[in-house]
Every structure is written in structure tokens, then in C-alpha cells.
Design brief:
Layout (H helix, E strand, L loop, with lengths): L3 E2 L2 E2 H19 L6 E2 H12 L9 H22 L13 E2 L8 H9 L10 H20 L2
Parallel strand pairs: 3-4
Antiparallel strand pairs: 1-2
Helix pairs in contact: 1-2, 1-3
């Protein structure tokens, strides 16, 4: 059995996690905290020296989802006891052009019991996402 996931070793994943965490916390402290998958991908490659993911491939999109899921697990664990519940640092990462977050964001929110279902109205989804983004920005300012 291979010790790699999505073509990366666990040591490479640890590097991606640490780098992704630093990148997103830094973004959260900027006047315009939102980023997109492409910018994050480029930053990860530049900062780690690892190959960037090619989002034309489902495997590489899934790998970015894996990384964001790991980062959410960390941000949630660090903030779960705050009023309103835990925070999802991936709320800062949108599609190129800023038209929303990926489906995995809402799926993870359901798994963390932050929302009851992915079958919410678009208004409810947007309100949840913006609340998460604002919460991450406020939290990052205190770290």
C-alpha cells in the first residue's frame, strides 16, 4: 500500500497544511481577506516548492478539497468553544472571480453540525458563508 495521498507524501501534506494555514491566516488579516483556489494553489507551490495542482483534473480538485478540509478541522478545533460555534477558515477561499465557495464547504459544515443540511436556500447558504468569513477575520485579528 502506498504511503501517498493524491501523489503527495505525508511529509508533503504536513508542509502544505502549515503553509496553507499561514497563508489563510495572513489573508484573514488583510483588508480584502478573500482569496481563490488559483491564488492559493500558486502560493502553496511557490512557498513549498511542490508542484501546483491542475484543476482540470478531478484528482487535483479533490486534493485541494482534502487540504482545505484539514485546515477547517484545525480552525474548527481552535474555535469550537466560541459563541456561535466553530469557524471554517476555508470560508476565505472562493472560486476565481469571487462567485462563492465550493460544494465541499457546505458538506463539511454539515459534518461539523454547523448547518443542518446542504439543502438550504441560496440566501441561507450565503448568510452562513459570510458569517463564517467575518468570524474568521475577527478571530484571526486576535491571534
Amino acid at each position: 500500500m502506498s504511503d501517498e495521498m493524491y501523489g503527495r507524501t505525508e511529509l508533503e501534506w504536513e508542509d502544505l497544511e502549515a503553509t496553507g494555514w499561514d497563508f489563510l491566516l495572513g489573508r484573514a488579516r488583510e483588508p480584502r481577506p478573500a482569496t481563490d483556489y488559483t491564488e492559493m494553489n500558486n502560493e502553496l507551490a511557490a512557498r513549498t516548492g511542490q508542484a501546483s495542482w491542475k484543476f482540470g483534473y478531478a484528482k487535483d480538485r479533490a486534493a485541494m478539497g482534502e487540504l482545505l478540509g484539514r485546515l477547517v478541522d484545525r480552525s474548527y478545533a481552535e474555535t469550537k468553544d466560541r459563541p456561535g460555534g466553530g469557524l471554517m477558515i476555508s470560508a476565505l477561499v472562493m472560486f476565481l472571480g469571487g462567485n462563492g465557495v465550493g460544494r465541499g464547504f457546505y458538506g463539511k459544515a454539515v459534518k461539523l453540525n454547523l448547518i443542518p443540511s446542504e439543502r438550504m436556500s441560496e440566501q441561507a447558504k450565503d448568510a452562513f458563508w459570510i458569517g463564517q468569513m467575518n468570524g474568521v477575520v475577527e478571530w484571526a485579528a486576535t491571534r
